[in-house]
Amino acid sequence: MSHELMQLPYAMDALEPHISRETLEYHYGKHHQTYVNTLNDLIKDTPDADLDLESLIRKASGKLFNQAAQVWNHNFYWQSLSPNGGGDPEGELKVAIEREWGSVDAFRKAFTDSTVANFASGWGWLVKKADGGLAIVQTDDAETPLTDPSVTPLLTCDIWEHAYYIDYRNARPKYMEAFWKLVNWEFAARNFAG
């Protein structure tokens, strides 16, 4: 099985002015594509070539894990954004967020503060725990909550510098402001319900 770069669910310029076409050309078109290409090179003519991406991530380590996890994390990230995003969640997800943090605004602040404070390149995640509660999780480098069977990823924000440096230079907090204008609550709600 050869892995392919996922099709974006929107046009390359659809996230402007918050995330530029140029950022997507580099982040999606070069960084994400390189993870896919490297992954395919690593698994070619090995037993791992028959595994789907999630199975591969759960058994891999080292460079193979890093490439596979970055492909999956980026696939998840692109779906966490929408040109029609922003605002507040609705329905059961909103109820769960308010139960955990008191309000959507308090959640947004907690997620932003945690994600901005992550010293590493990595990811900020909203996850659903086995008991149905929610948590904010930070992962470094290619780490992913997909490897933790006790949680379900709902939403992610990529905080590797290549996600925001073209548009925001080193101002990660400004990038986080833009993230909230694009956040795809419908995607998060489907993951929460699933």
TrEMBL record:
Class of enzymatic activity (EC top level): oxidoreductase
EC number: 1.15.1.1
Domain Manganese/iron superoxide dismutase N-terminal positions: 2-82
InterPro entries in UniProt: Mn/Fe_SOD, Mn/Fe_SOD_BS, Mn/Fe_SOD_C, Mn/Fe_SOD_N, Mn/Fe_SOD_N_sf, SOD_C_sf
PROSITE patterns membership: SOD_MN
Reactions accelerated catalytically: 2 superoxide + 2 H(+) = H2O2 + O2
Claim: Methyltransferase is one of the keywords in the record: no
Pfam families the UniProt entry points to: Sod_Fe_C, Sod_Fe_N
Domain Manganese/iron superoxide dismutase C-terminal positions: 89-190
Protein family according to the UniProt entry: Belongs to the iron/manganese superoxide dismutase family.
Function: Destroys radicals which are normally produced within the cells and which are toxic to biological systems.
Record protein name field: Superoxide dismutase
Source organism phylogeny: Bacteria, Pseudomonadati, Pseudomonadota, Gammaproteobacteria, Natronospirales
